[in-house]
Every structure is written in structure tokens, then in C-alpha cells.
């Protein structure tokens, strides 16, 4: 019964016409911008930067707490305490290569700019991660050093293939 009454009151508040009156001690926001989000985000960023500066200024004053001790405590708080495995990438071969129909290839896609391979690597003892290894063709033909590594994590509704442009779900400007 209470939930139903609350829902009726809430719906009434949300659907009632907005009054031009302001609350006592307040004034309406009168900015020229039609979209206030940029101004609000600038204010939020300024606030965060100020708090970071304040924390940095206070940091040396923490008694008996070295930078190393604080880093270790932070690792414990966020759960990054396990010993990491030595990174070693493993190319995952499929039963058949979707591009050539030949068995034993890790190749997922190939464009004029890069090749994409399915890979796996050990993160912790008994825990591995999988992803796509994108290798620019310019690094193969130049014979020089490899291009820098990038970890690309798509939004929950997207796949790595979408962002690379080898999937058809995203428009070109979002790839």
C-alpha cells in the first residue's frame, strides 16, 4: 500500500506543471548556454583537481606512512594482491580458419592495415584472459620495432570487432 501511494505521489509530482517560482534563498540558473552539461562538467573537473592538489599537499604530513606503504594499502583495498604470472601470449588456433578454411590458424580477420589474431595469456595461476591481437601491417613491412601495445576495452554493448571495423554494427566514425 505504501509503495502504491508513493508511486501515485511521485507520478503526480513528475507530471504536474512546473511553477516559475523559486525556493526561498535560491535563484534560477540563468546561463546563456542551451546545453549546461559542459559547464557542469568543467565545474566537476575543477573540484576534483582542487581535491587532488589538497591531498598532494597533505600527503607528506601523514605520520609513519611512506609512499610504498600507501601503495600497498591501496592494492589491498582494490584487491590487487595476487602475484601476477609472467606474461606470455598464446595464439589460439581454431578448428578451421574462417578466412581460408584451413585448420590451425589463429587469424580472425585481415584488412589492408592490420591482421587480427585470437590470443590468450595467463594472468594469475589458474586464471587466463582472452582477447584479440591486432598487428599493424606497417610494422611487418618496415622491419623496424613493433607498434606500441594498446588494450582496447569496448563498451558493454560493443565488441572489439565492432571497434576495429571488422564488425558491421558500428558506423565508421565510432570505430
Question: Can you describe what's shown?
Answer:
The chain is α+β, with helices and mostly antiparallel strands. 34% of the residues lie in helices and 16% in strands. It is built from 5 helices and 4 strands. The protein has helices spanning 2-15, 37-58, 67-78, 137-142, 160-164; strands spanning 89-91, 107-110, 114-124, 127-136. Strands 1, 2, 3 and 4 form a 4-stranded antiparallel β-sheet that branches. The mean pLDDT is 75.
Largest sheet: 4 strands, antiparallel
Total number of beta strands: 4
Distance between the termini: 50 Å
Enumerate the spans where pLDDT stays under 50 for 5 or more consecutive residues. none
How is the topology of this model organized?
Elements: H1 2-15, H2 37-58, H3 67-78, E1 89-91, E2 107-110, E3 114-124, E4 127-136, H4 137-142, H5 160-164
In summary, what is this structure?
This protein is α+β, with helices and mostly antiparallel strands and 175 residues long. The chain has helices spanning 2-15, 37-58, 67-78, 137-142, 160-164; strands at residues 89-91, 107-110, 114-124, 127-136.
Amino acid at each position: 500500500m505504501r509503495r502504491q501511494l508513493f508511486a501515485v505521489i511521485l507520478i503526480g509530482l513528475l507530471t504536474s506543471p512546473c511553477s516559475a517560482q523559486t525556493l526561498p534563498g535560491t535563484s534560477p540558473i540563468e546561463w546563456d548556454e542551451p546545453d549546461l552539461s559542459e559547464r557542469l562538467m568543467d565545474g566537476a573537473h575543477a573540484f576534483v583537481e582542487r581535491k587532488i592538489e589538497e591531498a598532494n599537499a597533505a600527503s607528506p604530513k601523514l605520520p609513519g606512512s611512506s609512499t610504498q606503504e600507501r601503495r600497498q594499502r591501496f592494492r589491498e583495498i582494490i584487491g590487487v594482491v595476487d602475484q601476477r604470472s609472467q606474461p606470455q601470449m598464446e595464439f589460439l588456433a581454431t578448428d578451421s580458419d574462417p578466412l581460408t578454411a584451413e585448420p590451425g590458424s589463429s587469424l580472425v580477420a585481415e584488412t589492408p592495415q592490420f591482421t587480427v589474431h585470437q590470443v590468450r595469456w595467463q594472468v594469475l595461476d589458474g586464471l587466463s584472459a582472452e582477447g584479440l591481437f591486432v598487428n599493424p601491417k606497417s610494422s611487418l613491412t618496415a622491419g623496424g620495432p613493433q607498434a606500441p601495445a594498446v588494450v582496447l576495452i569496448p563498451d558493454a554493448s560493443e565488441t572489439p570487432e565492432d571497434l576495429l571495423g571488422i564488425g558491421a554494427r558500428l558506423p565508421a566514425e565510432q570505430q
